[in-house]
Amino acid sequence: SSTMSLSEAEVQSARGAWEKMYVDAEDNGTAVLVRMFTEHPDTKSYFTHFKGMDSAEEMKQSDQVRGHGKKVFSAINDMVQHLDNSEAFLGIVTPLGKKHATQLKIDPKNFRIICDIILQLMEEKFGGDCKASFEKVTNEICTHLNSIYKEEGW
């Protein structure tokens, strides 16, 4: 669906919550990926550069992991800025979903994994309220990504 299910108040509090994470986009983005690769080692198989890395320490230092962590956070940041404009939001989510579905062939369950880890990290760093106010956003993102995957025949 093209309509967003977030109220104006929810959009504002989600932005406030995200802002705290995005201040340290590279470090937090890296922490999210390192946790994903450590807790779900199969996700590493999509990244040729990261495959051989086993220690979290090694991953943390990797320019490729850091670069991708920052990229993930930038993409989410773009989405968060457009939560109140479904056309603009879909303009960001759609090509991203298509690319991951068709070119990169990433299993869509990985989006949920990454979103859950972001929520975990938010809770650890800034508490339950912060996490709660961002939860709807991650659901929104995953819902849209999943529907793009369906359209692409997954």
UniProtKB/TrEMBL annotation:
It catalyses: Fe(II)-heme b-[protein] + nitric oxide + O2 = Fe(III)-heme b-[protein] + nitrate; 2 superoxide + 2 H(+) = H2O2 + O2; H2O2 + AH2 = A + 2 H2O; Fe(III)-heme b-[protein] + nitric oxide + H2O = Fe(II)-heme b-[protein] + nitrite + 2 H(+). InterPro entries: Globin (IPR000971), Globin-like_sf (IPR009050), Globin/Proto (IPR012292), Globin_lamprey/hagfish (IPR013314). Residues 5-150 form the Globin domain. Keywords: Heme, Iron, Metal-binding, Oxygen transport, Transport. One of its GO terms (molecular function) is oxygen carrier activity. Its EC number is 1.15.1.1. It is an enzyme of class 1 (oxidoreductase). Involved in oxygen transport from the lung to the various peripheral tissues. Belongs to the globin family. This is superoxide dismutase. It comes from Promerops cafer (Cape sugarbird).
